[in-house]
Amino acid sequence: MLPVFLLILIPLLSLFFFFFLTTSKSNSKAPKSYPLVGSFFAILATRDRQLQWFSEILVDSPSATFDLRRSYSKRQVFSGNPPVVQHILKSNFQNYEKGETFRSRLTYFLGHGIFNIDGESWKFQRQVASHEFSTKSLRKFVETVVNTELSDRLIPILSSAAKNGTVLDFQNILQSFWVRPGLLSPSLPQAKLALAFEDSVRISYGRLTASIPLIWKIKKFFNIGSEKSLKMAVSEVKESAMNIVKQKKQKLEQLGEKKSLSDELLSRFLSSGHVDEKFVADIVISFLIAGRDTTSAALTWYFWLLSQHPEVQSKVVKEIKEHSEEPA
């Protein structure tokens, strides 16, 4: 009986010491890692402030990079070091695939969109999308969209809030620009699509970072709790994306040879030979994600920083006025 016990105990002790000897000690704020569960307890304790927590660790790390060990020996590398980020996201992106864990947890929502695929499909979507970020496209967008959004939608809301002394969540206001014209009005109605998108992103992210994946898999099997909510939310988002694709496809068919909309992102994808509407709808969802929290969060921090530095704010206002003046 004793030899059998030792056969079980020795591998467990070896595993135990292996984990403790390899626990990262590169900086004081890096979370401790334990056998099997990794840094589960630190992750759980900071679940309501993880972005800030990760940022604090990166700032404290000499290399601005740290290794986070999750349960069952899974690891994640976080970096705020510009050369490292450039190496991964630009110079050698093809060497850093999403991986099966990433795809299996996000395919339900993202499908075959650019954030969830690798290889040739990723290259194709990136190549088509790159035209959208040319100087000409951005200038046209500012002239035709931004001015209207500011004068007809954003300024009336801010003016009304200033007049009535109302406190606004500025990031939520800016997120409303992401959906479609008409949703951002002084009454601030809650858009069904925006709420569905929020639930889809939040629950899918919960899947991705789950320390015990078995829990969400059980919920999915029985269609209960967060997985039931995810199913309903994703259905709403995909239906809206499909409607966008069908409407744009119909417009292109009506234009025939004119192709006057071919300089717009969705039109480029539809004109590239891809007739599978589900595939194009996945692309739509990915690009909606790309322009949602990123833009609103960046602009919110931008205006907050301006409010903390009046001298910079004065220079910005002066520059805007100079460029806004009509030529004599």
Outline the fold blueprint.
Elements lengths: L1 H20 L18 H6 L4 H11 L4 E5 L5 E5 L2 H10 L8 H11 L8 H12 L4 H30 L5 H10 L12 H17 L4 H10 L2 H31 L9 H6 L6 H14 L2 H16 L1 H15 L4
Antiparallel strand pairs: 1-2
Helix pairs in contact: 5-9, 8-14, 9-11, 10-11, 11-13
Brief descriptors of the model:
single chain, about 325 residues, mainly alpha, 2 domains, two-stranded antiparallel sheet, 15 helices, about 65% helix
Characterization of the model:
Its cofactor is heme. It comes from Quercus suber. One of its GO terms (molecular function) is monooxygenase activity. This is Cytochrome p450 94a1. Belongs to the cytochrome P450 family. With 328 residues, the chain is mainly α. It has 2 domains: 15-81, no CATH class; 131-298, no CATH class. It is 67% helix and 3% strand. The chain is built from 15 helices and 2 strands. It has helices at 2-21, 40-45, 50-60, 82-91, 100-110, 119-130, 135-164, 170-179, 192-208, 213-222, 225-255, 265-270, 277-290, 293-308, 310-324; strands spanning 65-69, 75-79. Strands 1-2 form a two-stranded antiparallel sheet. A hairpin with a 5-residue loop joins strand 1 (65-69) and strand 2. The N and C termini lie far apart (98 Å). Residues 16-27 and 180-189 have low confidence and may be disordered.
